[in-house]
Design brief:
449 residues; 6-stranded mixed beta sheet; alpha+beta; 13 helices; binds flavin-adenine dinucleotide; 6-stranded antiparallel beta sheet
Length: 449
C-alpha cells in the first residue's frame, strides 16, 4: 500500500498521530522497531504505545489542573490514547491510571485494524529525504536515526540530556525573604531570585542532601556518565562540606538587602545562596540553578521547602535524571512542528521536548492534525495559548528560552498569567478560560476532523 504519511515510532505520540491522520482519511505507514528485532532499554514488550514506567496519566481533574485540562481537550479531539485509557482505566482516585497491558493492547488493536494504517515492524535508520514524515521516536530514539537527525539539524542540536533541576512557580516564592539581583549586578542587575541561607540553615540543608533518599539507577543508566556541568546536587554535596558554597550556592557578589549594616548599607553577603533563573518568557516559572538531583520527589519537596523564601514553593517540575534525546525545538522547528531545514519532516512526542505520556500524546495528536490539514490543503491555526494544547505547543515552538531548553510537563506556568484573579481562584480561572477558548477554536471549524 502506498502511503500519504510515514510515521516513525509507534509509541504514545506516533500512535496518536497515526490515528488522527487515518481518521481524517489519509494512508499511514507506521514504522515501529520493537517486534522487528530491536528493543529500547526501557520498553518490555512489542505493544504499541507501551507505558515504560508508571501507569498513570496523572490528574483527571479538568477544573483545577493543567494536565486534567489537557485530558479534556484530547477527549474533545477524539484522542485514541484517551479512548483506550478509558477502556483500560483502573481506580486511582482523581488520577487517571490504566492497566498498561490492556491499554497497549487496545491501541495496537485499533491501529492494526484500521484500513488506513499499515503497521510495519522495522527500524528506520535515516531521515526520509522526501515525503510527509512524522518522527516520534521518543527519548530513547535508536542511535543511527539519532545520528541522522543530528546530521540534518547540525552537530550538538540533538541534546543528550542527563539531569534536570526543579522549576518553581514564581507566585509561590516569598519575596519578603528572597530578593532579585544578578551576581555583581551584572546583566540588567536583577536577572536572578536569591534565597539566603545562614550557616546553621546551610549545614542542616547539606546534611539533608546527604541523608535524603535517592532513586536508584536502572542498569543502562548507570553507564551514562554525568556531565561535569550537570552534576546532581547531592553528588556535589558528597564531595565536601563547602563544595556547594563554591558552586551553585556561592554567596559572593550578592548583597542581601534584608541584612544591611552601617558598613554595608546595601546588605551583606550570606553564608550561602540558592539562585533561581527565569525559565519562560512569561516570567511565571523559575529554575533552581544547579539543583539537578536524583532525590526522590517527596524528598525534594520536603527539603527544598526548608530553603528560606521557598517555604511554600509550588513546583512546576521536580528534578530528575534519565537518558533523554530531544531537539532544541524552539530553534529547529517552526510553529507547526516542522523541521525548518527540511519541512517535509515533522517531529512529535517527547523528542520535541515535552515530557510525559499525556503531553507526548497531545503533541502527537496535533502533529497528526497539522499533517492532515497540510495534505488537505486547508489552512492550519493552532489552538489558542490559553488552552493546554496551545500553551504546550507555544512552549515547544518558540516561547521557551532556546539557550536553556529542557523537557517540560504541562503546567499553568506555561499559560498567559491571570494576575487580576485571586490566587485561590486562579487554577479554576485558567481551566474555565482554557475550556471556553478551546471550544471556540473547535467551533471555528478550521481543524480537519
Ligand atoms: C526511563 C523512563 C521512565 C519514564 N517514566 C515516565 C512516567 O513514569 N510517566 C510519564 O508520564 N512519562 C515517563 N517517561 C517519559 C515517557 O516515556 C514519554 O513521555 C513517552 O513515552 C513519550 O512518548 P513518545 O511517543 O514520544 O516516545 P515513546 O513512547 O518512547 O515511543 C517511541 C517509539 O519509537 C520507537 N523507536 C525508537 N527509535 C526508532 C527507530 N529508529 N525506528 C523505529 N522505531 C523507533 C520506540 O521503540 C518506541 O516505541 C519516562 C521515560 C523514560 C525513558
Amino acid at each position: 500500500m502506498t502511503h500519504d504519511v510515514h510515521i516513525i515510532g509507534g509509541g504514545l505520540a506516533g500512535s496518536e498521530a497515526a490515528w488522527q491522520l487515518a481518521q481524517a482519511g489519509f494512508a499511514v505507514r507506521l514504522s515501529e522497531m520493537r517486534g522487528g528485532g530491536d528493543m529500547t532499554p526501557a520498553h518490555q514488550t512489542d505493544g504499541l504505545a507501551e507505558l515504560v514506567c508508571s501507569n498513570s496519566f496523572r490528574s483527571d481533574d479538568d477544573e483545577k489542573n493543567a494536565v486534567g485540562l489537557l485530558h479534556h481537550e484530547m477527549r474533545r479531539m477524539d484522542s485514541l490514547v484517551m479512548r483506550a485509557g478509558e477502556m483500560a482505566r483502573v481506580p486511582a482516585g482523581s488520577a487517571m491510571a490504566v492497566d498498561r497491558d490492556l491499554f497497549s493492547a487496545e491501541v495496537s488493536r485499533a491501529l492494526e485494524a484500521h484500513p488506513n494504517i499499515t503497521v510495519v515492524r522495522e527500524r528506520v535508520d535515516t531521515l526520509p529525504a522526501a515525503g510527509p514524515t512524522i518522527v516520534a521516536t521518543g527519548p530513547l530514539t535508536a542511535a543511527a536515526l539519532a545520528d541522522s537527525i543530528g546530521a540534518v539539524t547540525g552537530a550538538g542540536a540533538l541534546a543528550f540530556f542527563d539531569a534536570i533541576a526543579p522549576i518553581v512557580h514564581r507566585d509561590s516564592i516569598d519575596m519578603d525573604i528572597a530578593w532579585m539581583q544578578s551576581r555583581w549586578d551584572k546583566g540588567d542587575g536583577k536577572d536572578y531570585i536569591n534565597c539566603p541561607m545562614t550557616e546553621e540553615q546551610y549545614l542542616a540543608f547539606h546534611a539533608g542532601l546527604l541523608a535524603g533518599e535517592k532513586t536508584s539507577f536502572k542498569e543502562w543508566e548507570a553507564n551514562t556518565p554525568y556531565f561535569e556541568g550537570c552534576m546532581p546536587i547531592e553528588v556535589m554535596a558528597e564531595r565536601g562540606l563547602d563544595t556547594l558554597r563554591y558552586g551553585p550556592m556561592k554567596p559572593v557578589g550578592l548583597d542581601n538587602p534584608r541584612d544591611p549594616t552601617p558598613e554595608f548599607p546595601q546588605g551583606r553577603w550570606c553564608h550561602a545562596v540558592v539562585q533561581l533563573r527565569q525559565d519562560n518568557k512569561l516570567g511565571t516559572l523559575w529554575n533552581m540553578v544547579g539543583f539537578q538531583t536524583k532525590l526522590r520527589h517527596a524528598e525534594q519537596v520536603r527539603l527544598f521547602r526548608t530553603i528560606p523564601g521557598l517555604e511554600n514553593a509550588e513546583f512546576a517540575r521536580l528534578g530528575g535524571l534519565h537518558r533523554n534525546t530531544f531537539l532544541n525545538s524552539p530553534t529547529l522547528l517552526d510553529r507547526q512542528l516542522r523541521l525548518k531545514v527540511a519541512p517535509h519532516v515533522r517531529f512529535a512526542g517527547q523528542i520535541t521536548g515535552c515530557e510525559g505520556y499525556v503531553e507526548s500524546s497531545a503533541i502527537g495528536l496535533l502533529a497528526g492534525r497539522m499533517a492532515a490539514a497540510e495534505l488537505a490543503g486547508r489552512p492550519w491555526q493552532s489552538p489558542p495559548r490559553t488552552t493546554a494544547m496551545g500553551a504546550l505547543l507555544a512552549h515547544i515552538t518558540g516561547d521557551a528560552e532556546a539557550s536553556d531548553y529542557q523537557p517540560m510537563n504541562i503546567n499553568f506556568g506555561l499559560f498567559p498569567p491571570l494576575p487580576e484573579v485571586k490566587k485561590k481562584q486562579r487554577k479554576e480561572a485558567y481551566t474555565d478560560r482554557g475550556k471556553a477558548d478551546f471550544g471556540a477554536w473547535l467551533a471555528e471549524g478550521r481543524v480537519p476532523a
